[in-house]
Design a protein that fits this description.
Layout: E1 4-12, E2 15-20, E3 26-32, H1 38-50, E4 69-74, E5 79-83, E6 88-92, E7 98-99, H2 101-105, H3 110-113, H4 115-119, H5 123-133, H6 137-170, H7 184-224, H8 229-251, H9 259-266, H10 268-314, E8 323-326, E9 329-332, E10 335-336, H11 342-356, E11 362-365, H12 373-386, E12 389-395, E13 403-406, E14 409-410, E15 414-415, E16 426-427
Parallel strand pairs: 3-12, 3-13, 11-12
Antiparallel strand pairs: 1-2, 1-4, 4-5, 5-6, 6-7, 8-9, 9-10, 13-14, 15-16
Keywords: Coiled coil
InterPro entries: AAA_GajA/Old/RecF-like, P-loop_NTPase
Protein name: AAA family ATPase
Length: about 425
C-alpha cells in the first residue's frame, strides 16, 4: 500500500509553512485551535494528489505574494509537487521519469481524500458502493428485485385470502339444510308415487268390504237355500280363503304421509336458499384456503431468495469482519449506519475506501473533535492493526495531537525566510507522531 512519507506545504489557504512526516500506520492528528490552518493542510494534500478539481477556490494564502507550494513524498518513491504562479503539477517517479495526474489517479482513491463524500452519502449509496466493489452488486440487486416482486405478490395474495376468509365467516350456514338443491319436480313425483301407493291400498280396503258383504250375503243364502247348500258352501269356503288372504294383506298396510313433501314443496325456496348459502360458504372457504396455500408458497420462495442473499454476502470478500448489507443498507455488528458509533462509522468508511483501491494506504479525516479520547484511541489502534495511515484534524492542543498548528505554522518549527524564487526550506524541530 502506498502512503505519504513526507509533505511540505506553503501559502495554501491559511497555511504559511508546514512540514509533516506522518506516522506510516495509525493516526496522525493535526491539532490546534479554530482558524489556525488545520483543515487547510488536508485541503492542500487533496489538491496535491487529487488534481485541480480539489483546488481551493482561494488557494493562495491571503496577504502572501509567494504562490502556493506543495511537496509530497510517497512511500513508493513518487514525488508530487505543485509550485509556481500556476501551481503546475509535477510528478516524478523513482526512476526520475516525469509523470502526471493519470499516474496518481491509478492508486489514489478519490474517497480517501474526500471521505465526507462517502460518509454524507445516503445509506443506499453506501451499500451500493460496497456491493459493487465486492462484485455482488448486480446479482444481489436481481435477487432483491425478485424478492420484492414475490413480496408484493404475496402481500396481494394475503389480502385476497384475508378478504375471502372474512367473507366466508360472514356467510350464514344452516346445518339442517340438505347438501344439494331440491327440485320441485322430484318432490311432486315422489308425492304422486305415494298417492298412487295409497290409492292401491284404498282399492284393497274397498275389495275387503266387498268380499265381506258377499260373504254375509252368501251366508244368508246358505240359510235360505238349503238345496243349494253344497254349492253355496263351496262358494263360502272359497270366499273364506279369499277373506283370510285379504285380511292378511290389509293387516300390514301402512299409509305413507305426504305432509313432509307438501311442506317441502311449500318451503322449497327457503330450503334452496339455505343450500345455496352453505355452498357459497364452502366455496369461500375453499378459495380462502387456496390463496392461503399460495401465500405460504410465496413465503417459502422469499425465504429461499433471502438465504441466497445471505449466502452471497457470507461468501463475498467483505472488507471488514461484521460488515454486511441488509435491505439495501450497510450493517456493521448488527447496527445500521445511524446507530453506529463514530469510531465504527470511520472504520467502515476507511475499510470500504481501502477496498476500492487496495494500493491507496492513506485517508484524510477532518474534524475528529467529535470523538472522545477513548474512541480516538480505539480508532487509532484499529488503523495500526490494519496497516493504514490516517491524517486527521482535531480542534485540540492536547497530547493526543501529533502536531499543533498555530497561525499557519507547525508549533515548534523554525521558519527560514526565503524569496519567491528560492526553493522552500523548512527546518523542523524534532518530534514524534502521536502513539495510541
Amino acid at each position: 500500500m502506498i502512503k505519504i512519507n513526507k509533505l511540505e506545504i506553503e501559502n495554501v489557504k491559511r497555511v504559511k509553512a508546514v512540514k509533516i512526516e506522518p506516522t506510516s500506520s495509525g493516526l496522525t492528528i493535526v491539532g490546534g485551535k479554530n482558524n489556525q490552518g488545520k483543515t487547510s493542510v488536508l485541503d492542500a494534500i487533496a489538491w496535491g494528489l487529487g488534481g485541480n478539481k480539489y483546488k481551493p477556490s482561494q488557494a493562495n494564502r491571503e496577504g502572501s505574494v509567494v504562490p502556493p507550494y506543495l511537496h509530497i513524498v510517497l512511500s513508493n518513491g513518487l514525488v508530487v509537487e505543485r509550485k509556481g504562479k500556476n501551481s503546475d503539477l509535477k510528478v516524478i517517479d523513482p526512476n526520475g521519469q516525469k509523470a502526471g495526474q493519470q499516474l496518481l489517479d491509478s492508486f489514489v482513491e478519490e474517497l480517501a481524500i474526500n471521505l465526507p463524500k462517502f460518509m454524507n452519502s445516503t445509506s443506499k449509496e453506501k451499500a451500493n458502493i460496497l456491493l459493487q466493489i465486492i462484485g455482488v452488486g448486480d446479482k444481489l440487486a436481481e435477487l432483491e428485485r425478485k424478492e420484492m416482486e414475490l413480496y408484493n405478490n404475496r402481500h396481494a395474495i394475503g389480502q385476497i385470502a384475508d378478504q375471502k376468509t372474512k367473507f366466508a365467516k360472514e356467510q350464514p350456514y344452516y346445518p339442517d339444510a340438505p347438501k344439494e338443491l331440491i327440485s320441485p319436480s322430484d318432490l311432486i313425483k315422489q308425492q304422486q308415487e305415494i298417492l298412487a301407493r295409497n290409492g292401491e291400498n284404498q282399492r284393497k280396503r274397498q275389495n275387503l268390504v266387498q268380499i265381506q258383504q258377499q260373504h254375509t250375503l252368501q251366508g244368508q243364502e246358505v240359510e235360505r237355500l238349503k238345496r243349494q247348500l253344497a254349492e253355496a258352501e263351496a262358494v263360502y269356503a272359497k270366499l273364506g280363503q279369499d277373506l283370510a288372504i285379504a285380511q292378511k294383506d290389509a293387516l300390514d298396510l301402512v299409509d305413507e304421509s305426504t305432509e313432509e313433501l307438501e311442506q317441502n314443496i311449500q318451503q322449497i325456496d327457503e330450503i334452496n336458499r339455505k343450500v345455496r348459502a352453505n355452498l357459497d360458504k364452502e366455496k369461500a372457504e375453499e378459495e380462502a384456503n387456496e390463496y392461503r396455500n399460495q401465500y405460504d408458497n410465496l413465503t417459502n420462495q422469499i425465504e429461499k431468495i433471502r438465504k441466497q442473499k445471505t449466502d452471497l454476502l457470507t461468501n463475498a470478500d467483505l472488507p471488514l469482519e461484521g460488515l454486511s448489507v441488509e435491505d439495501g443498507e450497510l450493517i456493521y455488528k448488527g447496527q445500521k449506519w445511524d446507530n453506529m458509533s463514530g469510531s465504527d462509522q470511520l472504520k467502515v468508511s476507511t475499510a470500504i475506501v481501502r477496498k476500492l483501491k487496495p494500493d491507496c494506504g492513506f485517508i484524510l479525516l477532518d474534524k475528529l473533535e467529535q470523538m472522545d479520547l477513548d474512541t480516538l484511541k480505539e480508532f487509532g489502534q484499529w488503523l495500526e492493526q490494519e496497516g493504514l495511515q490516517a491524517i486527521a484534524t482535531r480542534v485540540s492542543t492536547g497530547d493526543e495531537c501529533s502536531i499543533i498548528i498555530e497561525d499557519g505554522y507547525v508549533s515548534g518549527q523554525k521558519i527560514i525566510e526565503k524569496s519567491e524564487e528560492q526553493a522552500p526550506q523548512l527546518q523542523q524541530k524534532q518530534w514524534k507522531a502521536g502513539e495510541f
